[in-house]
From TrEMBL:
Keyword Mitochondrion attached: yes
The organism of origin for this protein: Timema poppense
Full protein name: Elongation factor Ts
Stated family: Belongs to the EF-Ts family.
Entries under InterPro entries matching the protein: EF-Ts_dimer_sf (IPR036402), Transl_elong_EFTs/EF1B (IPR001816), Transl_elong_EFTs/EF1B_dimer (IPR014039), Transl_elong_Ts_CS (IPR018101), UBA-like_sf (IPR009060)
Biological function: Associates with the EF-Tu.GDP complex and induces the exchange of GDP to GTP. It remains bound to the aminoacyl-tRNA.EF-Tu.GTP complex up to the GTP hydrolysis stage on the ribosome.
Length: 239
């Protein structure tokens, strides 16, 4: 019996990856994107440790996965969520975004999404003519609003559905434009440690107050609340 030794040769790309992974770049990519170690490693290997290209590839993959997962999870009840309240001079917004569990509602990535949505609504509000003080944005209208990066909110939602693994829904938003002489105040509960910027909570309220012109002969009583303080207290009673 004759045993023949056969050696197969080829000059194509080797089956194993020869890219030497840069651990520093890997750490930066994980911190910047929040994606898993294995996904970040794969992205850097595919793009020769190019941080920018690896991040772009990860986002494209996540977006595709998000749309696929959003389709699969559509219809699952979203009974938890976050209310965002934003007040800036004469404009304000209150937004409700829902998820499936309280665990995701407390997730930093989900809350970052809610802030992105609130910012988009605030930008929309400031561009509106002062015809009607209150504008209601339905779920379908919210999906079509652009975020600061130019992407539609519906795309941001799909991306986070893929990342978080839960169904998410843009429930509704109300935008308020105040005319001169009207003070706006907002509050969320549980109250955030710092009551500035966009406030997040399980419940939220937004009020508008018009202060009557004081009589010239009547002085302000000591300890009397300002209009802003009164507005905040009213919101606290509402929630």
């Amino acid at each position: 019996m004759i045993r023949q030794n056969i050696r197969l040769l080829h000059v194509g790309q080797p089956l194993w990856n020869t890219v030497r992974l840069n651990k520093s770049v890997l750490a930066k990519l994980r911190k910047k994107t929040g994606y898993t170690f294995s996904n970040c490693k794969k992205a850097l290997e595919l793009h020769n440790n190019d941080l920018e290209q690896a991040e772009k590839w990860l986002k494209e993959q996540a977006q595709a996965l998000g749309w696929s997962k959003a389709t699969k999870l559509e219809g699952r009840p979203t009974l938890q969520g976050v209310v965002a309240v934003s007040v800036d001079k004469n404009s304000s917004t209150i937004v409700e975004v829902n998820c499936e569990t309280d665990f995701v509602a407390r997730n930093k990535n989900f809350q970052s999404l809610v802030r992105t949505i609130a910012d988009a609504c605030a930008h929309f509000t400031k561009k509106q003519p002062l015809v009607s003080p209150i504008t209601k944005l339905t779920s379908e209208r919210l999906k079509c609003l652009p975020a600061e990066d130019g992407k539609l909110l519906v795309d941001h939602m799909a991306l986070h559905i893929g990342n978080l693994g839960e169904n998410l829904s843009l429930r509704r938003a109300f935008c308020f434009l105040a005319e001169e002489g009207v003070t706006l105040a907002g509050y969320t509960h549980p109250a955030a440690p710092i009551q500035t910027g966009t406030l997040l909570g399980k419940y939220g309220a937004l009020v508008a107050l018009r202060e009557n012109s004081p009589e010239p002969h009547i002085d302000k009583a000591p300890g009397q609340l300002s209009t802003e303080q009164l507005g905040k207290q009213l919101c606290q009673h509402i929630v």
